[in-house]
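To illustrate the input format used throughout this study, we show a single complete record. The first block contains the structure-token representation of the backbone; no residue identities are included at this stage. The design step must infer an amino acid for every position from geometry alone.
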């Protein structure tokens, strides 16, 4: 949940990317790891799970992977949850 919250407004949660200077491709996985205070393997696992269920999308640029929310899938997921619960 925290990762999805952070990615909603990345400019409020993370410093600017030195390489890109913007968040159009999302947030570098390294920034997410540093903010979380968890191990890199744990964050990698969480990001993989969020990616596998379609809630985030990765973009690889050079040696870095950037993650952003998939708003369409998040909206559909929340709609389905509201319907079922």
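Output of the design step:
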């Amino acid at each position: 949940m925290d990762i999805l919250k952070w990615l909603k407004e990345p400019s409020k949660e993370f410093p600017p990317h030195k390489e890109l200077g913007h968040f159009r491709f999302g947030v570098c996985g390294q920034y997410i790891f540093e903010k979380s205070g968890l191990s890199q393997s744990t964050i990698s696992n969480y990001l993989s799970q969020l990616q596998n269920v379609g809630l985030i999308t990765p973009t690889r640029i050079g040696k870095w992977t950037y993650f952003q929310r998939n708003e369409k899938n998040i909206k559909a997921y929340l709609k389905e949850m509201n319907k079922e619960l």
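Structural context for interpreting the output: The two ends are 18 Å apart (CA to CA). The longest helix spans residues 71-84.
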